[in-house]
Design goal:
Order of helices and strands: EEEHEEEHHHEHEHEEHHEEEEEEEEEEEH
Strand content: 25-35%
CATH architecture of the largest domain: 3-Layer(aba) Sandwich
Number of helices: 9
Oligomer: single chain
Strand order of the largest sheet: 6-7-8-3-9-10
Length: 373
């Protein structure tokens, strides 16, 4: 096991002789034994980052360290990393036993030791009964276990998982997520997982590195990125259903600052924690998670009256949707069971402590945006 450190790592491709920055000055420090998720939309640079760590892509500039070793110029086989591919990449003619033991045989390790190692890792991943089978006879979940076993048998300092669950269906995906988390607890190996699924990242990782267009947006624990997103992109990317984000303008009424939507459908007092940041007449991007809005009967400074557009009863929760305008819908998630229909009047209360305000131009949370000026 070892720390994994990326210092100002950049990757530039050339398309029609023009440079395209896939990864821009990425700095990360993954602690010894930590489980880190690289999360972001397709094309954001997360898989390119993983491939640079693995040695499958050259680094344009910057440095990568595993422990105290600079690995930029090391061949992939000399980096002591394990890599589980998205598409499994198993050898079809070989049995599961021979697939797992392939790398050990390439290193001329004695057959007796190979057998011991294979059975040990097979027991850990609960695939002992699959050892005599060939990949074609396996399910997607079984193939992924074999894929991970082949990576782990090398006893790597760093384990790299490239979208390991993307080809699995819902139930198998959930089961494998639990198994990977349990496996990490057992082996305690520094692990990096690449995923575009924020639920996967939240469930598995100790810390999440959120990347967009090659730039690291935020690196923190699941709770940190969920509760304190640094910008609008992170706020909208993390959470299911996603955070409600829409335009508001600050107005003064009776000496008190209010936020109101552009069509005045919603209006409420500016929360105390934002008073010193908000200026009258300025426009902002307002954010609040669906779970931080409650259905209420009493009026107060953070209550709004509106009408139901869509109501969904999902059994364990209710979802209420309010159309603000042609482009924006306000969603509410409640564990209480309600019964509404289209056009019903409703009172909603926004939790003032859970409101987020972002700068319209930069997308930064306004407290952070002002600190940077």
């Amino acid at each position: 096991m070892a720390e994994l450190i990326l210092k100002d790592v950049c990757k530039i491709y050339y398309k029609n002789k023009k440079p395209v920055e896939a990864v821009k000055s990425l700095n990360l420090k993954c602690r010894d034994g930590e489980f880190v998720a690289l999360l972001g939309p397709s094309g954001c640079g997360k898989s390119t980052t993983l491939r640079m760590i693995a040695g499958l892509e050259d680094i344009t500039s910057g440095d990568i360290y595993i422990g105290d070793r600079r690995i930029n110029d090391l061949h992939p086989k000399d980096r002591n990393i394990g890599l589980a591919f998205e598409n499994y990449a198993l050898y079809p003619p070989l049995t599961v036993y021979d697939n797992i033991g392939f790398n050990l045989r390439a290193k001329k390790i004695p057959e007796k030791q190979i057998k011991e190692e294979i059975h040990k890792i097979a027991e850990l991943l609960d695939i002992t009964d699959l050892l005599d089978m060939k990949p074609a006879a396996l399910s997607g979940g079984q193939k992924q276990r074999v894929n991970i076993a082949r990576a782990l048998i090398r006893r790597p300092e760093v384990l790299l998982l490239d979208e390991p669950l993307s080809h699995l269906d819902g139930k198998v995906r959930q089961k494998m997520r639990t198994e990977i988390k349990h496996l990490h607890t057992e082996i305690n190996c520094t692990t990096i997982i690449v995923t575009h699924d924020q639920l996967e990242a939240m469930a598995l990782a100790d810390r999440i590195a959120i990347i967009n267009q090659g730039v690291l947006q935020q690196f923190g624990t699941p709770l940190e990125v969920f509760n304190n997103p640094v910008n609008e992109f992170v706020a909208g990317f993390i959470g299911e259903p996603p955070m409600n984000i829409f335009n508001v303008v600050a107005i003064m009424e009776n000496g008190i600052l209010h936020f109101k939507t552009e069509n005045s459908l919603i209006k409420f007092v500016v929360p105390e924690k934002y008073i010193r940041f908000v200026k009258e007449g300025e426009k902002y991007r307002f954010g609040i998670r669906p779970t931080d809005i409650t259905v209420c009967r009493e009026d107060d400074s953070y209550t709004v009256k509106t009408k139901v557009s869509v109501f969904e009863n999902l059994g364990e929760e209710c979802r209420i949707h309010i159309r603000l305008d042609n482009d924006n819908i306000l969603s509410v998630v409640s564990s209480e069971i309600f019964h509404f229909k289209y056009g019903d009047e409703i009172k909603l209360k926004f939790n003032p402590e859970r409101i987020h305000i972002f700068d319209c131009k930069t997308g930064q949370r306004i407290e952070k945006a002002l600190q940077m000026t």
